[in-house]
Amino acid sequence: MTGFSPDEPAQGSALLDRFGTMLGARHILANADDMAPYLVEPRGLYHGRALCVLRPGSTEEVAAVLTLCNETRTPVVPQGGNTGLVGGQTPDASGRAIVISLERMRALRGIDLASNAMTVEAGMILAAAQAEAERAGRLFPLSLASEGSCTIGGNLAANAGGTSVIAYGNARDLTLGVEAVLADGRIYRGLSKLKKDNTGYDLKDLFIGSEGTLGIITAAVLKLFPRPAAVATAFIALPSPAAALALLDLAREKCGGQITAFELTPRIGLEFVLAHCARTRDPLPHAAPWYALLELSSQSPDGLDERLLQLLEHAADRGLICDAAVAASLDQRKTFWRLRDELSDAQRHEGGSIKHDVSVPVADIARFLTEVEAALAAAAPGARLVAFGHLGDGNIHCNVSQPIGADRAAFLDRWDEINAIVHGIVARYGGSISAEHGIGQLKRDLLPSVKDPVALELMRALKATLDPHGILNPGKVI
């Protein structure tokens, strides 16, 4: 990298002046206290420094900034809601970079009901996009625990998954087109609403999942769906992950495309939530080793609750479930989901946690978890496996909490060792070390050991072509 050094204040000051001309001084944060929230990721694993934080208000302003940064070889770190968990949105410690926050770019550019499409700017909060769709009588199904603060641009940059992938797919599947600014300031205007377009490469998929290393997404056309007329939710006690997989198979047989969520939670995870999160209670009178949160949706207002009850009766007859509670109201449904959504946060109160966002083939999940538990017990006696996630798409957050009473720092010092154990088992099952959070800084050095060499060569070739000076999110992904 040949950009200026913060030790050369004249160059830095001149650059700030030029940014001020582009954006207006009030949209440039250069004071340490003002920049601080943008320079650390949520878990505190990565702290960075920056020359400044820029808050452009339009695609054209983003383009002007990148044109200048490309000319001056100034590194750029794009940032949405700063909710990422792999350090992809955090600058390094050099102080050379600028952070481009898209938080001002929150506009709804339009809804086309005939096309079932909605065009939004990248800084729109995910919950706001959901609300806009709902106001139009439609559903935008991407749903994450962080949906109140994460942004559409960040969701696309990381190809977010969430709880509805089993029915609707991940962020890539929910996107028809994108607008993105390239490293040299050119604007790729790909905001197509077409579902069929075979005029060459599907360029939008270069930017979705690239974590801001190939371009900065500034707007997107999102797919909308009919809003369900009925939703039925059950919190189900299970004897084992194998029983959960059998229940999922049965649900697919009996309910087909009506399954919109199937989340797996261990008893230890539920206990963490009950101990540390307000307004939570155990939905069932007796503890079970595992739980599933099953949700069905239908376009018909009638019969869904009965179908869910019939499914649970069939499952009980086959010995797959221990007990179940069916939500009788919207509030109770929200209560069930709160038990799932608070899992990650609840772990903070139990000391150090070494976290893994992995996926394996759905059919192998039970065997995978058995192997991981045995391997961890041998390597780190007392460490507590808290494995939860999206059973329907094979994505398990295979988190490991420190032994009770252990030294937090000493446990976290074993991060690489525990990673190697979990990721080694993932590899044996042909899985992925990053199912939905991305690579960022956290997993960058692991990528060469798990990625096909030709795939890495192609990724590097794309990076060199679209960002020859390496200014876009340097040090991330590759």
From TrEMBL:
Please list which residues make up the signal peptide. none
- The segment(s) forming the FAD-binding PCMH-type domain are 46-227
Q: Enumerate the Gene3D superfamilies for this protein.
A: 3.30.465.10, 3.30.70.2190, 3.30.70.2740, Uridine Diphospho-n-acetylenolpyruvylglucosamine Reductase, domain 2, Vanillyl-alcohol Oxidase, Chain A, domain 4
Q: What are the BP-aspect GO terms?
A: respiratory electron transport chain
State the PROSITE patterns in the record.
FAD_PCMH
Residue stretches spanning the membrane: none
Q: Which InterPro entries match?
A: FAD-bd_oxidored_4_C (IPR004113), FAD-bd_PCMH (IPR016166), FAD-bd_PCMH-like_sf (IPR036318), FAD-bd_PCMH_sub1 (IPR016167), FAD-bd_PCMH_sub2 (IPR016169), FAD-linked_Oxase-like_C (IPR016164), FAD-oxidored/transferase_4 (IPR051264), Oxid_FAD_bind_N (IPR006094)
Keyword Transport appears in the UniProt entry: no
Output one GO MF annotation: FAD binding
Tell me the keywords, alphabetical order.
FAD, Flavoprotein
> Which cofactors are reported in the record for this sequence?
FAD
Q: Which PANTHER family match?
A: BLL6224 PROTEIN, D-2-HYDROXYGLUTARATE DEHYDROGENASE, MITOCHONDRIAL
User: What protein family does this chain belong to?
Assistant: Belongs to the FAD-binding oxidoreductase/transferase type 4 family.
Protein name in the entry = Hydroxyacid dehydrogenase
Which species is this UniProt entry from?
Answer: Methylocella silvestris
